[in-house]
Amino acid sequence: SYELTQPPSVSVSPGQTARITCSGDALPKQYAYWYQQKPGQAPVLVIYKDSERPSGIPERFSGSSSGTTVTLTISGVQAEDEADYYCQSADSSGTYGVFGGGTKLTVL
Amino acid sequence: QVQLQESGPGLVKPSETLSLTCTVSGGSISSYYWSWIRQPPGKGLEWIGYIYYSGSTNYNPSLKSRVTISVDTSKNQFSLKLSSVTAADTAVYYCARGTKTSPYPLSYWGQGTLVTVSS
After folding, report:
1. Chain A, nearest residue to B43 by Cα
2. Using the beta-carbon criterion (under 8 Å), do A97 and B107 form an inter-chain contact?
3. Which residue of B has its CA nearest to A8?
4. What percent of chain B has pLDDT above 70?
């Protein structure tokens, strides 16, 4: 079955830049999406179609794509950005959805 | 503003069928894709499947033999049935909305409901 691979954890100090990667063989063909999930809450979409930002999401959140890897970048990290982040995409045929294993962002 | 609300039993016995309903308010269920996602306690998100308002579906291959997703446009609801459940199916179950042309992104989510499988 198709898998997306994320690092389990990323740590940054406030004001620094956090980069969270997601790798998958079908990413050159399928869009990636990023969700933020805080404890006890439902996920929230922060990036869609690799690099588009929904309305209401701060400009410090951005996304990029290169080959089989997509990256979520959070510039000027704030304490409130501490959360789990999940990438999501589809298999090469676009039939089946898949989530990455999630990355816990810790703001030191 | 579209809102989604999951409902159903919080406790299901092993080997029985888990049944959940997602009620959509603030907008019509028509013309959109609708999904179910689950999250075991302390673990990551797992895509279960989606349904288009017209009734076409796609399911996670690992769950396909046990999953049925249906839609009732007259009630603005869609539902999940998962048969032959085991403790491994214990999770928070979320419903979510896609777009008019694609199951993704999942822009609107319900708050989630915890379903525990236990005798």
Report:
1. A101
2. no
3. B44
4. 100
Look-up of token digits 């179950």: B93
Which percentage of chain B shows pLDDT scores above 90? Answer: 99
> A55, A101, A107, A62: which is closest to A82 by C-alpha?
A107
Tokens of B63: 């769950």
Chain-centre distance for alpha carbon B27: 18
Candidates B5, B63, B104, B111, partner chain A, best to mutate (most A CBs within 10 A): B104
Distance CA A74, CA B103 (A): 26
Q: How far apart are CA B5 and CA A69, in angstroms?
A: 34
Q: Sheet with A69-74: list strands edge to edge.
A: A18-23, A69-74, A61-66
Return the DSSP state at B61. T
Of B44, B61, B62, the CB nearest to A86: B44
pLDDT the model gives residue A1 = 85
Q: Is A42 on the interface with B (CB under 8 A)?
A: yes
Alpha-carbon distance B60 to B95, whole Å?
A: 15
Range B56-68 average pLDDT:
96
Q: Report the candidate in B88, B84, B96, B75 with the shortest Cα–Cα distance to residue B115.
A: B88
What SS3 state is found at A94? Answer: coil
